[in-house]
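Dear support,

Our group has been running a series of protein-ligand predictions, and this particular one with magnesium ion is the one our PI (initials K.S.) wants archived with full inputs and outputs. We had some confusion internally about which version of the output was final, so please treat the block below as the authoritative record. The input we submitted was:
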Amino acid sequence: MNIEQVIEVRGLTKKFGNLVAVNNLDLNVYRGDVFGFLGPNGAGKSTTIRMLLSLIKPTSGEMKIFGKSISKDRKEIFSKVGAIVEKPDFYLYLSAYKNLEILGKLSGTDVSKKKIMSMLELVGLDKRYKSKVKTYSHGMKQRLGIAQALLHDPELIILDEPTTGLDPQGMKEIRDLIIYLSKEKGKTVFLSSHILHEVELISTRMIIINKGTTQVEGTVEELLKTDKVKVTFEVDRIEEALRAVNESSWQKGFKSTSKNEINFDLTKDEISGLNKYLIEKGIAVSAIIPVRSLEEYFLKITEGGSK
Amino acid sequence: MNTLIIIELQKMFKKWRTYIGIIAISLLAIIIQVALYFTGKNMIDFQMRGIEQSFVMVGNLLNGYFIARMILTLLIIHIPFLVVLVGGDLLAGEATAGTYRMLLTRPVSRLQVISAKFISGFIYVVVLIFWMALLSLGVSLLIFGTGPLLSIGSGIVIFAENDILWRFLGAYAYAILSMTTIIFISIIFSSLVENAIGPIISTMAIIIVFLIISAIPVDFLQSLKPYLFTSHFTQWNNFFNEEVDYREIFESAGILLAHIAALYGVTTYIFIKKDILS
Ligand SMILES: Nc1ncnc2c1ncn2[C@@H]1O[C@H](COP(=O)(O)OP(=O)(O)OP(=O)(O)O)[C@@H](O)[C@H]1O
Ligand SMILES: [Mg+2]
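Confirmed final output from the archive:
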């Protein structure tokens, strides 16, 4: 396979005094990827994105975008990159329209009224194009942020938590938009988030970082498909159920129990077998709840991160 | 680059603070004009006391030139306060607003961005001084008419009507140079912080401290005077001497230009290296 590598990062490190915000990070993003960049608050996502966009200098490490060095070919690279970094900030004393016009001119793209209005329409702000951004709500600014990132039809779109502040409808719109951009337009999307669910829905590949260090990396299927699944069986008569399990070979999958629940580590095929066995023993299984290992894992590091 | 400068100017002239200087200059010029319109005759008479006999009276002394000269003397010391309002905000304003992140991730180099900022700062100074010239000289000439210029400096001189305009142009040009130095100082401070207040106050503090040092009659401090840029601000006065000392003017202008170049160079260096954390 010879797929073009859009972002290539090796050993990227950023220190703020003693604090290591990003630690020896490697990233590989290929053309057409919707790349999920996951991590809890303070994991180093925004710091990484700032380095990718040359807003801050890495302490060490190498970065290439479109196979080119960011320091040497920044103009060429940035004419093909659109980005949102942290919260959406604009010239508050200018209208949404004027903001886009200015940013579009700087990107060297078409800033005709038609083009700008169509961008505003895409994010649902066309009715308020004349209002000063000062008068916008957070969610509206976030939408305008997306408009400015897409304005010059970039090949690579870097979005730092683009759905913060959006209502559920807005979140879904953004998700659909990202899918559209990736599937229909062949764009490469680098999407940072601290919500696993959000990334999981649309990403092709993802990486989870915490405290600046990579924890796991891979395609979404790979990460979700592990041999053993944690699963909780909810039963009516817990004592009898436990006895039945201990008497059988199911005992090897047993993990723990609480109230009327028993937790197991099982392969997917084993789940139905155990269910059948318990029913045969006359125990009513009221629910089988899979706990996906990635989610549990993510929660674990998220908790670790917020302490 | 032109696009960047135009955009900078658009942003600048959409902000209120940009008009504070223009409005202040307009108000002061109008107040002085009105005051002199009614009481100017007395003032001229007062200044001419005792020497009336030694001159052949050459015509209307309360003319547009006289008013313009007066406004220039009165206003020039205060214009620094007005230009730093804009200069201090030029870079810090982007940091406060968080707009650096969008500005600097466009296909423009930081060198271009900072240069556009400096150039628009310079253009603001030019606009301000031009506006002052238009109001104080242009409008005054319309209201008060022309005539010879009574100039009170190291002695009393009266310049003939056809020997005046170029002196004003020289003085205004020099004022642009002085004010450009000041706005550049506020821009360097502006590049270091995320709020415009600090640069505004720091620049004013420097000017005030330097002026006080120059005014203290102690030998050591007086010997420092030529090294303080503030000592070179007042050379515009030189254009209203009977014999304009060009050597002095060019020397002072050279020192100011060196400041301007150094401020631009250092700020650009800082700005290109800077981590954008706002
Ligand atoms: N300017 C700074 N000075 C010092 N430390 C900083 C600075 N900016 C970020 N950090 C630190 O770097 C670490 C990573 O921060 P970063 O903003 O990259 O996290 P993040 O993953 O984007 O988090 P969030 O989900 O909250 O946006 C944090 O520990 C933070 O405190
Ligand atoms: Mg962040």
